[in-house]
Amino acid sequence: MLMHKLDDTKPELWNPDPAFIARMGTFMAEANQSGVLLAGEGLRPSSVDAGRITVTDGKKTVTDGPFAETKELVAGFALLQVRDKAEAMHWGQRFVDLFVESGAEVEVEIRRVAEWEDLVPPA
Questions:
Q1: Strand, coil or helix: what is 66?
Q2: How many CB atoms lie within 10 A of CB 45?
Q3: Rounded Cα gap, residues 50 and 54, in angstroms
Q4: Long-range CB contacts (< 8 A, 24+ apart) of 64-70?
Q5: For a Cys staple, 46 with which of 50, 85, 94, 112, CB 3.0–4.6 Å?
């Protein structure tokens, strides 16, 4: 999974320009045509329709966005099915380049999704 994080205090980052949208569309089309794309979406800023539920010491707290205590939030993701970490990093570099071309500061985290087989010990 490729997850990109943006600064939630910079609303301009959450409203991409048409050139960025075109580059992202091209990236998604290429990932789809190569057979690795499973899903990909952008997320809205925490100031719009967001909530957070936390549990600390057994106490549940519900918070509506925006989340003032959090600067960087996951802003979107692409879920890819690749052979190995090297291929994931290749796609991750290409994903980062979409933001670099816009001059945006971004952090892209690349993580392997845990599958059932990873959680259940062998019999």
A1: coil
A2: 20
A3: 13
A4: 66/8, 67/8, 70/8, 70/46
A5: 50
Report which residue type is found at 99: F
pLDDT single digits (tens) 69-106: 677 888 899 999 999 999 999 999 999 999 888 887 88
Q: Which residue has the higher pLDDT, 117 or 25?
A: 25
Report how far apart, in Å, the C-alpha atoms of 23 and of each of 28, 36, 48, 99, 106 are.
9, 18, 25, 9, 16
Q: How many CA atoms lie within 13 A of 24 on its CB side?
A: 16
Does the pLDDT at position 52 exceed 90? Answer: no
- Region class of 16: left (phi > 0), else alpha (psi between -120 and 50), else beta: beta
Question: What is residue 57's predicted lDDT score, i.e. its pLDDT?
Answer: 95
